[in-house]
Design brief:
It is built from 13 helices and 17 strands. The chain is α/β, with parallel strands linked by helices. β16 and β17 form a beta hairpin. The strands form 4 sheets. Strands 1, 2, 3, 4, 5, 15, 16 and 17 form an 8-stranded mixed β-sheet that branches. Strands 11-12-13-14 form a 4-stranded parallel β-sheet. A 3-stranded parallel β-sheet has the order 6-7-8. It has 2 domains: about 100 residues, Urease, subunit C, domain 1 (Roll), CATH 2.30.40.10; about 300 residues, TIM Barrel. Bound molecules: zinc ion (2 copies). One zinc ion (ZN) binds next to β13.
Length: about 400
């Protein structure tokens, strides 16, 4: 397949290359060159007036979250959850997301099914279950009850693991199940009923063991953390991506680059939780927590941007709220220049996923994930918040997936 007469967008160098021909063979890009006057052939895509952007990458999603009630979701049949996940993955593709990282809930089987083409969807990176201490952000047992149903077939975002020995085994089990990273809950959260949002979770020793086991397996740890203390501690102990980080300040923002770590803000989830959370089943004790972190999110992104921290794109929406995913672009554009936001969702996301050069870039040898937009996304990144209007074409895995 060829995409003809298109303007190629290079987020890394903030460059636009006009009238290019992109050639794809199988799931790869094989050539990007100045186009010629040669007439279009059958199967060629006419990109005249359009901008070719590397496929968008969202590094914090929950594809198996059916509702905003994470405990309620654990009672659903796995088949039903999977069916919902496939519909959600298709929706993400419609919005231009051609690679996503699931931060808890999805397993390697789902990623494999997508790779095999059983259903259309983005490339999926999974961690399996997020690991949580008792009473931590991933402990979704009802208050007043202690039974746990951690059978891997039961849907759920988290899994309770306490102590260094158990942590070692749990990380090995996640690796065995095909995790491409390990997710740790390192502070309180919104959706968990029994913890404080500003509480720290897991001991240093437990985190060290997880990081050590993950690194031995050639993967890394991601840490859910809100407070400055939780963020700094996670970075110090070798956690490689910080999720949310809403309350971090300039001091913590300055730590990322030196640790080779990434910041993954998830701004849209707080906006939407405030608007729609209660209607979609978010428990009252969680609604009260939203206010505590909502305002901090934009400020934290500003600190990270000014400190030059590597920032990836994330959204973290649950259940029926996930359709708001593209609004993250508009929120970030309030704080960062358009090119910086675009890099988060392309080149930086690709580096975080360990796919620099194959994702997040339009170049020979890269994978065939390309979005065609109607405007230059470097200066109008906020328009990506309305994909129906802004995104004309999505090419995923070298094939035409969306055409409007
Ligand atoms: Zn989280
Ligand atoms: Zn999350």
């Amino acid at each position: 397949m060829n995409i003809r007469h298109v303007t190629v967008v290079d987020p890394e160098h903030e460059q636009l290359l006009g009238d290019r021909r992109i050639t794809l063979d199988g799931d790869r890009i094989t050539a990007v060159a100045a186009d010629t006057t040669e007439p279009l052939r059958a199967g060629d895509l006419d990109g005249t007036g359009l901008y070719a952007v590397p496929g968008l990458i969202d590094c914090h999603v929950h594809v198996t979250s059916v509702t905003a009630d994470e405990w309620g979701d654990t009672a659903l049949p796995p088949s039903y959850v999977t069916a919902h996940a496939l519909r959600e993955l298709r929706r993400m593709l419609d919005c231009g997301f051609t690679a996503v990282r699931d931060a808890g809930g999805a397993d390697a089987g789902l990623a494999e099914a997508l790779d095999e083409g059983i259903a259309p969807g983005p490339r999926l990176h999974v961690c399996g279950r997020a690991l949580s201490q008792t009473g931590g952000h991933g402990d979704l047992r009802p208050r007043g009850r202690l039974h746990a149903d951690d059978h891997p077939a039961v849907p759920g975002i988290g899994r309770v693991v306490d102590g260094t020995d158990a942590m070692r085994i749990a990380v090995r089990e996640q690796v065995r199940a095909g995790a491409s990273f390990i997710k740790l809950m390192l502070s309180g959260g919104i959706s968990s009923p029994t913890d404080r949002i500003d509480g720290a979770q897991y001991s240093d020793d437990e985190i060290r063991v997880a990081v050590e086991e993950a690194e031995r397996a050639g993967i890394y740890c991601a840490g859910h953390a809100y407070t400055p203390e939780a963020v700094a501690r996670a970075l110090r102990l070798g956690v490689r991506t910080i999720e949310h980080g809403n309350l971090l300040g300039p001091a913590e923002a300055a730590l990322f680059a030196g640790h080779g770590a990434y910041y993954v803000p998830t701004l849209v989830t707080y906006t939407v939780l405030a608007e729609e959370g209660p209607r979609f089943g978010l428990p009252p004790q969680s609604v009260a927590k939203v206010a505590a972190v909502a305002d901090g999110g934009l400020a934290a992104l500003g600190h990270a941007h000014r400190a030059g921290a590597p920032i990836a794109f994330g959204t973290d929406l649950l259940g029926q709220m996930r359709g708001h995913q593209p609004r993250e672009f508009a929120l970030r554009a309030r704080v960062q220049p358009g090119w910086a936001v675009l890099r988060s969702a392309t080149t930086t996301g690709a580096r975080l996923l360990g796919a620099a050069g194959t994702l997040g870039v339009i170049a020979p040898g890269a994978l065939g994930d390309i979005v065609l937009t109607r405007h230059d996304p470097g200066t109008h990144v906020e328009l990506l918040a309305d994909p129906e209007a802004e995104i004309a074409v999505v090419v995923s895995r070298g094939r035409l997936a969306v055409s409007r």
